[in-house]
Amino acid sequence: QKEVEQDPGPLSVPEGAIVSLNCTYSNSAFQYFMWYRQYSRKGPELLMYTYSSGNKEDGRFTAQVDKSSKYISLFIRDSQPSDSATYLCALDNYGQNFVFGPGTRLSVLP
Amino acid sequence: GAGVSQTPSNKVTEKGKYVELRCDPISGHTALYWYRQSLGQGPEFLIYFQGTGAADDSGLPNDRFFAVRPEGSVSTLKIQRTERGDSAVYLCASSFQGLGTGELFFGEGSRLTVL
């Protein structure tokens, strides 16, 4: 079993839709949970960062962590064509290194 | 610029050759990471520096891979006797403090193609 699993997509949605992106992980030692966005031929950039279970909201983005289920989600409201990118979840086991999921490729169609 | 700078952006080499990839992190960032990303995959950890020392090199796939950061700033990833399977985008990232702080700032990567 891989440490972090993510549906690779591609996921295509119409503009304005609510998007749900998910990751599952196997190691309960992970303490920090992040979502990165990566445009084609660019480096990943941080979108959201959470430490505890629960929800964290930032504009159109909401990150949700359920440590008991080892499940994290990113919701995008009112999706825009500019949101078209690959979304990577990343987990940090404090004291070791960041582990990334394989990414979900999202296309938001105008 | 103020971001992480990586050179070269593209490198094509022949099997068996030696390659160096350079990373110039954000000024003042003590932590520096190298990741490798294959097509359709997430970044795969290679090595992490805190200052000049390699705090974790457990991701280096074999002894053909080596990285240095002699003055605690610029880092060089060195690959000896390249193989076709080494073809990937090599990403460098830096962070102000390192682990547990959440944000890695990535460069745009060096795309390595081994023919």
How would you explain this protein's 3D organization?
The complex is a heterodimer of chains A (about 110) and B (about 120). With about 110 residues, chain A is an all-beta fold. In chain A, about 0% of the residues lie in helices and about 55% in strands. In chain A, a hairpin with a 2-residue loop joins strand 6 (about 55-60) and strand 7. The N and C termini of chain A lie far apart (about 35 Å). The model of chain A has no long low-confidence stretch (mean pLDDT about 90). With about 120 residues, chain B is an all-beta fold. Chain B is about 0% helix and about 50% strand. Chain B is built from no helices and 11 strands. In chain B, the strands form 2 sheets. In chain B, strands 2, 4, 5, 6, 9, 10 and 11 form a 7-stranded mixed β-sheet that branches. The model of chain B has no long low-confidence stretch (mean pLDDT about 95). Chains A and B meet through strand 5 and strand 10 of A and strand 5 of B.
